[in-house]
Write a structure and sequence with these properties.
The chain is α+β, with helices and mostly antiparallel strands. The protein is 13% helix and 20% strand. Bound molecules: zinc ion (ZN).
């Protein structure tokens, strides 16, 4: 039987250039986004989510560059990648081939069932609340302030 096997391929793990190797210290070139503290203190326990500090996803431990699309993690509300939250939220959700987990807003995902291939019409089968509803997070408030929301 020709069943279109579900496409779970994701463009994950973009392996950029390794971040090892000596790097010449250059005079400020515009945005210094990859400023890394000396690799000496590799212990990241209790990092305060401040504005200029690199924010690390508490699920995959990688840096979050786009905080505006980040969600709050379930453990303590520190930001996590949207994709990581999605993956976690989908964990343990048995999905039919026509079902998917999608973000439905207000800090919640939901198992949705698409009715056609264009994926425009769908029904929400069950909600997966991710962030506590109505909870405010400092790091988010900072972005919202910056975006003028
Ligand atoms: Zn992550």
């Amino acid at each position: 039987m020709a069943d279109g096997n579900k496409e779970t391929r994701r463009r994950f793990g973009r392996r950029g250039r390794g971040r090892s190797g000596p790097k010449a210290v250059e005079p400020a070139t515009g945005i210094a986004s990859d400023a890394e503290p000396s690799g000496e203190q590799g212990d990241v326990s209790g990092i305060a989510p401040k504005d200029q500090v690199a924010v690390v996803c508490s699920i995959c431990q990688k840096q979050i560059f786009d905080l505006s699309s980040a969600l709050a993690g379930r453990d303590g509300g520190t930001p996590v990648h949207f994709d990581c939250a999605l993956a976690k939220a989908s964990e343990g959700e048995p999905l039919e081939p026509s079902e998917r987990v999608a973000y439905v807003g207000r800090g919640a995902f939901a198992v949705v069932e698409y009715r056609d291939k264009s994926m425009t019409a769908f029904t929400i089968k069950r909600r997966i609340q991710w962030e506590k509803e109505g909870e405010k997070f400092d790091w988010r408030r900072n972005i919202q302030k910056r975006l003028g929301l």
